[in-house]
Amino acid sequence: MPTFFDVLRACFEQAPDRVTIHLAQSRQEDVAITYRDLLRGAAGFARVLAAHDIRQGDVVVLIQQHGEALIHGFWGAVLYGAVPSILPPLTEKLLPDRYRKDLAALIGLTKPRAIVTYSAFRGEVEQAIHMAQRAGETRCIVVDGVASIEPDFAALGGSTCSEGDIALLQHSSGSTGLQKGVALSHRAIFNQLNAYAPAIELSDSDVIVSWLPLYHDMGLIASFLLPVLLRTPLVLMSPFDWVRAPARLMQLTSKYKGTLTWLPNFAYNFCATRIRERDMEGVDLSSLRAVINCSEPVYHSSHVAFLDKFRRWGLQERALATCYAMAENTFAVTQSAIGQPIARNEGGGIGNAGQVSSGRPLSNVQLRILDANHVALPENTIGEIALKSDCMLSGYYHRLDVTAQAFHDGWYLTGDLGYVLHGELFVTGRKKDLIIVGGKNVYPQDLEHLAGEVDGVRAGRVAAFGVFNESAGTEDVVVVAEAESDDEDVRESVAEAVRMHVTRNSDVAVRQVVLVDSRWLIKTSSGKVARSANREKFLSEMAE
Amino acid sequence: MSSEIADPIATYISTTILKNPKRGIKPDEKLISSGLIDSFHLVDLGLFVEEKFNVRIDDSELNAEMFDTLDQLVALIRSRQ
């Protein structure tokens, strides 16, 4: 089996003039990046790593804005034989202090040899390195752009990598998520791509269009590694541009005759309600053969809204598809049949009538539904989804303890609940108290900890959970906290303080903060706040 | 500040975006750079303003440099009417 390096080298030698990425940037002309451009830029970046004394196998964290520096940095690290990990830069809403603390914690755990960033962000990175007491061991390398050079493949460190070596690390967000870097080998990633390509019927005529961030598995694997390594042209726009101008995705699809795109469920609602007709003039979506709903629970209502909106611009119903994926399995676990209607629960049995299937397991994935004692359950019974495959993570980086806990008898325990019906997987919920907002995993304990830091909130008496918002197509984050004061005005200001503090220190905007009397929250026998019980209580007593 | 423009926007922000009708929005309060309105709701706010005041605000103008406070948004709308 090849490594990334071998495949890149073959692309460079066999198809140098082929465009691999059309990079779309707001208010600028699109940039067409050929394999020659890509690997010359990557080789230039590898030279920067060499100049900073980086060694083969070292972790190199990339914190760059969405653009050429990030793309060249990623593939440059691969050519060099380093292990790249892409992290998001600071966003407008997040407090710099919080970002720095999370980054410092990650540096302390992952111990990267270098963090590569852009000049305006250097101060943040250097402070985080200092906080982590890694000055001298973790370097901050500033790269705003590199001079391309001809790659000397024989001399590049990546040539000595083998298929079992770690190819990259992937982190999910938040204080808790950053502590678990998913380490994936070259072999695991190619096994995933080789199984996933036939599942989506990938062919030479495909064009992938994406606005997804590269620090997320759906963006990184399906919409970056897959197209570059399998020579499928990619049209790539920035997530920040998409959020502000979602119509750009449709315009780019039309311009490049895009055939495949992946979206989290909320994006269907977001596009259906936020895109103006005037921005769709001349747009033709008939080239799309699969719009794949992935990375958060799938809702039929979101598909209906999306189809109703875009049918008149050529979107075909049979293009709607679903997928169940996770970073620990590199990406896809299941995929619905392309070009076929998505299976739904017809009612009369287990689960909710109308529920949308996530499809069937990929050819290299074995799937089981387990009961609480990890015993396999028959079809049509809800339990924890467990899987085995040849594309699983090598481990959580530097976290052998957490890795061991994630498996039982060789089966990876996903923490998701679901059932299998006629061979199709239906995901019903989560065993772990995880909130998924807009495709991002959010750990409630992070939010509860933050809310507990606000004056006026009773210590340890906070519950955070998600409540599905049908119009948004995703979960709203609700924080319920017991207040120290009975005074309405005081509670009002405490609620506002909780909202701002949690929003600015986490990856989500809190939608609702409710202050309640002492002893309102239900605790478990071990004294922990019972999130799901409190969620039920909130829904029955105070939801709108 | 012209309240016939500012008031409906303040009500929209507190009621629909923040889900807290009792919360006032100060004319000079930072809305975007403070994180009060996230990027998803910024698009909603843009659509609301277009429809309510019959002005055109492009997606590329939805950012803290164009307006960050209610005052600045009102001024932007007036300049378009």
Report on the architecture of this protein:
The complex is a heterodimer of chains A (about 550) and B (about 80). Chain A contains 16 helices and 26 strands. The longest helix of chain A has 18 residues, at about 490-505. Helix content of chain A is about 35%, strand content about 25%. With about 550 residues, chain A is of the alpha/beta class. In chain A, α2 (about 35-50) packs across α3 (about 70-80) and α14 (about 445-450) packs across α15 (about 490-505). Helix content of chain B is about 50%, strand content about 0%. Chain B is built from 3 helices and no strands. Chain B has helices at about 5-15, 40-55, 70-80. In chain B, α1 runs antiparallel to α2 (about 40-55) and α1 packs across α3. Chains A and B meet through α9 and α15 of A and α2 of B.
Give a concise summary:
The complex is a heterodimer of chains A (544) and B (81). Chain A is α/β, with parallel strands linked by helices and 544 residues long.
Please tag this protein with its features:
heterodimer; A: 544 residues; alpha/beta; five-stranded antiparallel sheet; 16 helices; B: 81 residues; 3 helices; 0% strand
What is the strand tally of chain A? 26
Tally of alpha and pi helices of chain B: 3
> How many DSSP H or I helices of chain A?
16
Average pLDDT of chain A works out at 93
Major sheet characteristics of chain B: none
Topology:
The complex is a heterodimer of chains A (544) and B (81).
Chain A: H1 4-14, E1 19-24, E2 31-34, H2 35-51, E3 59-63, H3 68-80, E4 83-86, H4 96-110, E5 114-117, H5 122-131, E6 139-142, E7 166-171, H6 174-177, E8 181-185, H7 186-199, E9 208-210, H8 217-230, E10 234-237, H9 239-244, H10 247-256, E11 260-263, H11 265-274, E12 290-293, H12 300-310, E13 320-325, E14 332-335, E15 360-361, E16 365-370, E17 383-389, E18 395-396, H13 400-406, E19 407-408, E20 411-421, E21 424-430, E22 435-437, E23 440-442, H14 444-452, E24 457-469, E25 474-483, H15 488-505, E26 512-516, H16 531-541
Parallel strand pairs in A: 1-10, 3-4, 3-5, 5-6, 9-10, 11-12, 12-13, 25-26
Antiparallel strand pairs in A: 1-2, 7-8, 8-18, 13-14, 14-15, 16-17, 17-20, 19-20, 20-21, 22-23, 24-25
Helix pairs in contact in A: 2-3, 4-5, 11-12, 14-15
Chain B: H1 3-17, H2 39-53, H3 70-80
Helix pairs in contact in B: 1-2, 1-3
